[in-house]
Amino acid sequence: MCKRSGKFSTYLVSFIVLAVLCATGYLVCETMKNRYLSQGDSLLRSHDYSAAYEAYGKANKLSIRPRADILRGLAESAIGMGDEDAASGYYEKLLKLEPGNAKDRYTLGRLCIKTKDYKTAEKQIRALRDINTPESIEYADKLTGDMQVGAVKGFIKDLFRKMIPGFDDLGKALPGLGGSDDTSKDTGVD
pTM of the prediction? Predict the structure, then answer.
């Protein structure tokens, strides 16, 4: 007769314990991620952009896959902090998840105009026209107008900077002359 040593039941119990530990770890991570996400949302609503950016960053680290709500929070927080390059990167990642989102494409286009990346802004205009909804066509038309205005303003500012050596200092002393690069009023990106 074959003697049973109980190895099978030991392996089965070990496997069950391991599965329960993994599931518990996953649930803890999801709970923490949701907590950081809600914390980031409330901080973003209260305009505490750096703390919101930090909370969304922690939630993003706990995500197994990229999530649109976390990336959107990171992008909006980066805009609030004035980091347009980081915001553009997050919006590009966001558009890989949701390529048909016209509002995010529009915001990315506005950021590109603000940072004078007109090629990427033109790509967003084409993508908005390809979506072919009334909202996306309206956004594409707005971006086209904003890009033209931004290009002309940029050209004039560069021309004045070359002609008048202290133009940047003059613009800081008299807001609206163009010495500062605050074009949030022009592009609509807050």
Answer: 0.73
